[in-house]
Amino acid sequence: MALESKHQQAVFKWTQYVRQKYPDLKLLFHIKNEDAMGAKQVAVDKAMGVKKGVPDLFLPVPRGQYHGLFIEMKNETGRPSDAQKWWGQELKDQGYYWEVCHGWEKAVQTLEWYMNL
Length: 117
Known about the structure:
Elements: H1 4-17, E1 29-30, H2 39-47, E2 57-59, E3 69-74, H3 82-93, E4 97-102, H4 104-115
Helix pairs in contact: 1-4
């Protein structure tokens, strides 16, 4: 079972291969929301606006009825936390597409689907 970070890295590697087909993927980015840096850094991050449960990836490109795409990355067995589910619902209510993706392959499928809307 691969770490979530390895799956996310594979997504970004894939985007390099499909940039000509989907040039807007240049805007895909990771949102820093990890908290494994020690209590002092967590406090600094929180004061700077880092919030628990915010999705891992954001593509600020409108497609179809959506304002943009948020992806919560998980490994094959990972499950979203209550905070992540809350963010997902709030983002959907605001007109964004939000998806929990188990593994890089699911994230790639989601990105391809979204880009082709």
